[in-house]
Structure formats: C-alpha cells, structure tokens
C-alpha cells in the first residue's frame, strides 16, 4: 500500500472518530442539561469544552447555544464537528479509489449534510435530535466500513487511526473528570457530582454496559476502572490499546523487522500498562500521571508509525 | 443508495402508446421553444419532422410530464453530488461543491455515422503517431517540405529531449480526445486533436450511468452500444506498452486533489484496479522508478500521467514543479518506465499543425482523409493573411500555441476597435495565428426550464492506441447550455450529455 494512502486512511479514521466523539458528547450534554441546575450545567459545559478543544481557561462562561455553535459548527475551530468531518472527507477524497462506493458516498453525504446545517436551524427544534441523527449516520458509516471494505492493510490503518484517537479521547475525558484542577482559576469549578458521573458514562456509551458489570451503583472509582481497564468494552482504553496492537501487527506486511521494532516495542509497553494496571494504585494525584502517560504513549506510537511506514528514508531501503 | 431514488419512482416500464400525435418544434409541447436555426439539428429535419433514430426518445418526451423530467434531472444532479463528481469553489471560509451540469437527454448517433467517425479517427491518429515518430527521429516530413521545419522545431511544445527516444509500438499518443463538430451540412469534422492529457472520459461513463437509469426503456429499445469496457480497454492499452515482464505494475499519475480532473484520475485508477499516485509518492533510483509503500519500494513500469509535460520532471522541464518526479525523464529515456502519453505530443495538436493533418494523412498513408478539418487559414501564408485581414468580422482568429480560449478573437462578436488592435498583432507576428470561419455547431434537444430546447453540441470520442487502436463507441457530448451560445467549455456555462451510438 502506498505510504501516502496509508497516511490518509489513518487520518480519515481519526477524524471520523473525533467527529463521532464530539457528536456523542453534544447529544448527551444537550439531553442531560435539562436535569441540571444552571451552575452545574455551566461547570459541565466547561469540562466538555476542555475535553474537546483543550480550552481550560474561560473568562466568562458562554451559554449552551454558543457552546454548541463553537463545538459543532465553527469552521475556524479545527476540532469542531464540521471541521472534523471536512478533514475526514478531504482525506477520503484523496484516496477515493481505495474506498468502496458505499463508504465514500456515505461519508460524502454526511459531510454535505453537516456543511449545510446551521446552529439557528437546529436550535429551534430539539438540537439534541440533530446530533443523535448524525450519530446514527456515523454508526452506519462504521458498519458500511466494516462490511464493504476488504479487511486488508488499508482497513488496519483505519483501525489504527480510530483506536489511537479513541484511546486519547477517553483518556482526556477521564483526565478532565478525575484530574486535579489546573492552577490559574480565579474560582475553581465545582467538582463533578453524581449526575456528572452518570453523564461521563453516557459520553462513552458506557452507562448500560457499566450497570451490567457493576450494577447501577455509580462510584467514580469503578467508572475509572471500567473505562480504563475493561477488556471487552469497545470504549475502554484497554480495548482500544488491544486494537492498536492488533493493527500494528497487520500493517506493512512486507516491511523488514528492523522497521517494525520501534512500533512494536511502544505498543507492547502501552499494552502492559493497561493490562496490568490496578485502579487502587491510582489514587490521589497518580491517576493524572497515568492518564497523561497513556496519552503520551499514544503520541509516541503515532510518531513511530509515521517514521516507520509513511516517511521513512528511502535511501535505507534501496 | 442513489439507485433507489431513481428506480423507485420510475414509471418508464409502462407501455407507451404508439399513436402519440407529432409535436412540432417551435409550436407544440414539449418543443414549444425549440428553435431550428442555420445549424444542423440532431433530432429534427429542417421541416420539423423527427429523424428516425430519435423517434423513441421523442415518443417518451411527449408522454412524460414536465415535472417528471424535472424530477429525474434533479435525481441525476443529486447522484453526481453524492458521488463527488464535483469541483470545489472556494469563497471566503466556505468551500462549495459544484457539479458540472449533465443534461438528461441523450445525444444519439446512428451506426452508419459512427462507422465513418471511427474509421476517420483511426486514420487520423495513425497519421499523427507516424508524424510524431518522424519529427523525433529522421524528420523526413520536414526534409520533404510537407510541413515547414521552423513551425515544428520552433514550437514551444516540441521537446528536443525526445529525439531518439524509443516509444513502444511508435505510439506516442496512447489516449486521444478528438473534438468533433457537425457542420451545417451534417458532416462531422475535426475541430481539435487533443493529444496531451485529454480529460472527460469519466463524465462519458458517469452520464451513461444516470441517463440509462432515467430512460431505461428508451435505452433498451434503442439498442445502444456499450461503453462500459472503457477502463478495461485503457488497461489493456497501458499493459501492452510494457512488454518487460508478466506482472506489469501500472500507476495513474495525478497532480493531486486540487486538480479539477482529480475525480477522473481517481475514477480511472479505481476502475482499472491500479495505483493512483502523486509525484511525491514516486522516486527514481538508478534510472528505475519506485513508489513508496508501507512495506518498502515498489517498482513502477507504466505511468499513465495526467500531468502536463512541463511538470513531469523538474530536472529536465520546469524546475519549479513540485508535481513531478526528479529523474523520471532519464528513467524513461533508459527504457525502464513507459510514460503515456509520451512527452512532446503537444507539438502535433498545435493549431497550425492541425491545418496540415489532411496533408499528413496523404503523406504517410497515401489515403484521402475520411474526416475533414474545419477550413483553416494559416496566417503565415501571405494569401491567407490578406484574406483574414479583410474578413476579420467573420472569422475566429486563434494563437497557435494556446488553448482554452486564450489569445483568441471572435470576429463577429468583437468591436471594430478590438478587431483593429488584433489586426496589428496579426501583421506583426502572422506565423503565430490561424483563422477559421465561425462554425455553427449542430444543435441537440436539451432539457431547459421544463421544456425541450435546441442547444449547440460537440463530440469528444476517446481513442486508445498502443499496438492497435481502440475506440469505445461514444464519447463526451458537450453542450452549450446558454441559449445561442457556441461555447461548450464547462468554464463558460457548458454541460455534458450522454452519447448513444446505436448498434444498427
């Protein structure tokens, strides 16, 4: 597979995953804010913004309309929903010949649909419904991708991009909820409450699976354990890491061991961390460090893949 | 997905009554605004009766409600949008996807007409390839004084670097898109030979796809020849250029996603099942071309390039090109890779050389040209120059090395002042210009505002040549959607149509 093609597939999947994450967070947030007091809703919007755009210091707290507008429709915001879908579609267009007609047309229609949507138009109806619709479209895209593409090297690059993105997004979300409050706040936001933990589970499509495992007793520690270490839940960090390891074993089948070694070592180390991690060891501030480490190791894998398979020095293989 | 939208509501399977009364162009629905002018009309004879090969479409159009036609037209446009057969228009922060309009009504060509066109195109490409081989080797045609030496060697599209390069099967032009127009007398004549990187073939195939679904019954009963095998024919052509080994590795070289024909490049690569590459994917080592893959380097044998000569190799041609591959030309010279079309073919579709093609056919093949040229005055000839200067208000004057409507004077539409200014340029540099009469391109039925009107069309068939020449029966019909306009270019309000070549 051409290196450029692999790169575009990887990024296409990352952006689709990012779009899905943003969409789900917005849908859940808009649905749940009805139940919250204004202060709690503000704190929770602030966390959401921090999770999605890394913006942690706000002078003033905007209203739900402005938050939604920024996170979904702001073209100037590179992590907004429309920006993610546009980037996914741009990557897909460059490798159009590698995708099935179903995958391409589905993504393209989704792109066209979100490009023509506006905050004013969706706000007059139930805005959450719009995001639920988009989420359904994204699920269909996932299904179509799974079922119409060959599960060859290209598909493994898609999986790799998706898994790295998801592992990072979930770590970030956990960090926002469990981490120590960053210094610099004039008035630190209130810590998460019962309802916020529930919402966190919903942010990760995890409420029902969690209840099956731990019953409806909402305990932050159990939530962290589930979202970090559960081996079978598709949104847990451990699950994503397993997919990363799998995908890395399947990409670039003809590459010599010398070029594979760095990626393999990094992925193995990350796998060990989540396979053998214990939630009771992550008390106090140490969960912060742990989550930051996960995220950094994902970055390192990302860079190692790029160096090994995409932008390697051609002189070395002649 | 888009199949359902089109098929689900299609009532075309209903029996159509045979005794639908005739509808006259210019009088009756749906042809109330159909104007027959001086141009040859594809559907109607001058007295307003329908040509036999349009009878099936005529019956359908008369029985179909205008709203239904509109609906099918919209479904067709939506299908193009979803498929991404679009170009992007950037305004401010917004990027808008636009489609090149497709007209739903097919342009129909009879079997007999096509037979002649096909023979004429084969003859023409054979002569042009012989001409290219000649001017890049012995230059007999120049020694014999058939074509002025200065005109060829002085052309900016003549590539000195190509002298002595062995081109497989002597086929310099592997993909040609010849523009044909119909004169007022109904004869197809050649307007332009596009020998460099002609585009449009994906539209030919995409149009067929939507139009066949919009008129399934008319299509079936008309017995239209298939064009579906174009990608296969292209693949066969490209494969036969590389006899080195069994497992030929072929790539389509594109300038990238910002090129307006990118959809076509991706489409052809996908349909042929070959790699689509950009210049940055390739590298040359020891005169061998490789593509960078995740597993390592992969040798490339044949490159179907959709990049202009100038940008192919920055070491030899434009050094500021980032679209090409450094060292590609030397690999090509060394015979380690085949580039299709060969470099330097542009010299033969120069507008001045065009005027000599009938002579070239006689010179190389000892045959009379089957397809005529549009009458062309070479301003380099004194007699022609004075004729052109005296008739500037009736003629179209074109600079020889330009294309896409640049450096052109359309006499009948220009002001006296513009004509005077152009006359000065002509006198100063007559060798650089040719002139042609304004041609009334034929008109064909086109769906406009709920009715059917006459619009001017041309025809671009695609000719594939390696060891033999293949032409799929059809081509891209371009249509000037603006009333009365003779300009079919998509940049100036042109659209395209499906072209049906009948099998009998």
List the helices and strands and how they pair.
The complex is a heterodimer of chains A (318) and B (504).
Chain A: H1 3-32, H2 38-53, H3 64-73, H4 81-94, H5 101-116, H6 119-123, H7 127-148, H8 153-178, H9 194-203, H10 207-214, H11 220-229, H12 237-250, H13 257-275, H14 286-310
Helix pairs in contact in A: 1-3, 1-4, 1-7, 1-8, 2-8, 4-5, 5-7, 8-11, 8-12, 8-14, 12-13, 13-14
Chain B: H1 2-7, H2 55-63, H3 66-83, E1 86-91, E2 94-99, E3 102-109, H4 111-135, H5 140-143, H6 149-153, E4 175-177, E5 179-182, E6 188-192, H7 201-214, H8 216-222, H9 230-239, E7 250-253, H10 262-272, E8 275-277, E9 282-285, E10 288-292, E11 297-299, E12 302-305, H11 309-312, H12 328-333, E13 338-340, H13 351-365, E14 372-373, E15 377-378, H14 382-390, E16 395-399, E17 408-410, H15 416-428, E18 433-437, E19 443-448, E20 451-456, E21 462-465, E22 469-471, E23 477-480, E24 494-501
Parallel strand pairs in B: 3-24, 6-14, 7-8, 7-12, 12-13
Antiparallel strand pairs in B: 1-2, 4-21, 5-6, 9-10, 10-11, 15-18, 16-17, 16-18, 19-20, 21-22, 23-24
Helix pairs in contact in B: 3-7, 4-13
Description:
In chain A, helix 1 runs antiparallel to helix 7 (127-148), helix 8 runs antiparallel to helix 11 (220-229) and helix 13 runs antiparallel to helix 14 (286-310). Helix content of chain A is 71%, strand content 0%. Chain A has 14 helices and no strands. Chain B is built from 15 helices and 24 strands. Chain B is 31% helix and 21% strand. Among the domains of chain B are: 114-197 and 230-351, Rossmann fold (3-Layer(aba) Sandwich); 375-437, Dna Ligase, domain 1, CATH 3.30.1490.270. In chain B, 47% of the residues are buried. By secondary structure, chain B is α+β, with helices and mostly antiparallel strands. In chain B, the strands form eight sheets. Chain B has a four-stranded parallel β-sheet, with helices on one face. In chain B, strands 15-18-16-17 form a four-stranded antiparallel β-sheet, sandwiched between helices. The interface between A and B is medium-sized, with 36 and 34 residues.
